[in-house]
UniProtKB/TrEMBL annotation:
The lineage of its organism: Bacteria, Bacillati, Actinomycetota, Actinomycetes, Pseudonocardiales. Residues 150-159 have a biased composition (Basic and acidic residues). Coiled coil: none annotated. It holds the Pfam family AMP-binding_C. This is Acyl-CoA synthetase. One of its GO terms (molecular function) is acid-thiol ligase activity. Residues 150-182 are annotated as: Disordered.
């Protein structure tokens, strides 16, 4: 099935190819495009009947499942903001986001109602506007929203938006809000260009979800893929071999992941990897953290030139790069997307020449954002109409972006900048390292010194720390070699694989 631009979108595909599988959930149950569109229409009518109007917000604390897409589609054609909330947050954090987003109605998985009840009480969400997927005592059943509602599209369709919250690594999470267009919901040229740069095209395809949909990139890629006509296959916390099994079983064409998952896949024995057919893959997109050059080269050698990468954040995306391009400039995170701009500025906000390292600012190719109800944080992150999320990097002479690290992760030792990502990449190249985190710790003489916390591979032998020190000395300048190497059975990471460096620092710096 090949789709023209005007035929894109779940509601159009539901009419043109109603029986095509739209979503396959974690149990293996398939839902067609027609069924999904009808459910979204019913939900749209229900939200209007509940009194929600364009500009209002809907929250959800749910696992990967069909309700995510039903809610996202319904809010998308009703002019509403949809805020999926991390279901691993504490009650107080959930309450803060529900209150800050001004959620009028909230949907929660039945398994999470005990956690979310007090949070929504504190947020002031009315009891009659709380719904539980699967039903829960004291909550309205999510299925009530569909009872007696028309399966046809609502009369007035106006585009809504997703309002996601940043991870809150430097204080309270910030709601990233874009203005509503007032126009009907459509697949934008921006998304066509962005996905095209990552070798993801409309038509027949299968998108595999490996991370929680409440995060920006997994949700965006799954929802866009769905509107491109792809079948979306859901998983939750799939282990490395399970990832390969799903790719083989469903003939997956695209997926989004993070470098940690790529490293774990490479650690599978060759005979295990060879059991599964991955030839259907056209685009394995990664982002979210620096990917060691060695890891990416080995993945390309294994999977072929299907690895694609982009640079961006919840605030927007700015660059992209395909395997063939990356191999000519190893380490780059891409060239600016259509309509996007990248600038590297010094401490005074002045542009730096090619090759010089500074703070990365960007302008995305979509409408501007603000941090909801926080003009001070919005202003702090801006330089004119450019925005930064605190990354440090440089542009080469051809305009390709290279990242060094987050400014907050930078180690300043004896007045010299040390980027943890560079040290971590060197350590991950050692076969006895399963995972690693590098942080700066207090040092009376140098201000900070480099500490590497290593999760050994199962086959690691005694004396690993000494071997790793020698390994680093062969690959890094002396001042970058970790002064200390500690071994740990597990490193703290988010459910998408991002390293929680702040938890490691707390042991040495305090909260």
């Amino acid at each position: 099935m090949s789709l023209a631009v005007g035929e894109l979108g779940v509601f159009n595909i539901a009419q043109a190819d109603p029986g095509r599988p739209a979503v396959i959930d974690v149990t293996g149950r398939a839902v067609s495009f027609a069924e999904l569109a009808e459910r979204a229409n019913q939900l749209s009518h229900a939200l209007r009947a509940m009194g929600l109007r364009p500009g209002d917000s809907v929250g959800a604390v749910i696992h990967n499942g069909l309700p995510y897409f039903e809610l996202r589609l319904a809010t998308w054609q009703s002019g509403l903001y949809f805020t999926p909330i991390n279901n691993h947050l504490a009650a107080a954090e959930i309450g803060y986001i529900a209150e800050n987003s001004e959620a009028k109605l909230v949907v929660v998985d039945a398994s999470l109602t005990e956690l979310c009840g007090p949070a929504l009480d504190a947020a002031g969400v009315a009891a009659e506007l709380r719904f539980a997927v699967g039903g829960s005592p004291g909550w309205r059943d999510y299925e009530e929203l569909f009872e007696g509602k028309p399966r046809t599209a609502p009369d007035e369709r106006t585009g809504g938006e997703v309002m996601l919250y940043t991870s809150g690594t430097t204080g309270r999470p910030k709601g990233v809000r874009r203005p509503l267009t007032g126009r009907p919901p459509t697949v934008s040229q921006y998304h066509l260009d962005f996905m095209g740069r990552l070798d993801i095209e409309p038509g027949a395809g299968v998108h595999l979800v490996l991370s929680p949909l409440y995060h920006a990139a997994p949700g965006t890629f799954a929802f866009t893929g769905l509107n491109f006509g792809h079948t979306v296959v859901l998983s939750e916390r799939a282990k490395p071999e399970e990832v390969l099994r799903l790719i083989d079983e469903h003939r997956v064409t695209a997926t989004f992941t993070v470098p940690t998952v790529l490293h774990r896949l490479l650690r599978l024995p060759a005979e295990v990897r060879d059991r599964y057919d991955t030839s259907s893959l056209r685009s394995v997109v990664h982002a979210g953290a620096p990917c060691p050059v060695d890891v990416k080269i080995r993945c390309i050698e294994w999977l072929g030139p299907v690895l694609t990468e982009f640079y961006g954040a919840t605030e927007g995306s700015a660059t992209a790069v395909r395997s063939a391009e990356w191999l000519t400039k190893p380490g780059t995170v891409g060239f600016p997307l259509p309509g996007a701009e990248i600038h590297v500025l010094d401490e005074q906000g002045e542009p730096l020449p090619a090759g010089e390292t500074g703070t990365v600012y960007f302008r995305s190719g979509i409408s501007g954002i603000e941090y909801f109800k926080d003009p001070e944080k919005t202003a702090t992150a801006r330089h004119g109409d450019l925005i930064t999320v605190g990354d440090v990097g440089y542009l080469d002479a051809d305009g390709w972006l290279f990242l060094c690290d987050r400014r907050t992760d930078l180690i300043l030792s004896g007045g010299v900048n040390i980027y943890p990502a560079e040290v971590e990449a060197a350590l991950l190249a050692h076969p006895e390292v399963a995972d690693v985190a590098v942080i700066g710790i207090p040092d009376e003489e140098w201000g900070q010194s480099v500490l590497a916390i290593v999760q050994p591979a199962p086959e690691a032998a005694d004396g690993l720390a000494e071997r790793l020190t020698a390994h680093c000395r062969e690959r890094l300048a002396g001042f970058k070699v970790p002064r200390r190497i500690e071994l740990s059975p597990q490193l703290p990471r988010t459910d998408t694989g991002k390293l929680l460096r702040r938890e490691l620092r707390a042991s040495y710096w305090g909260a």
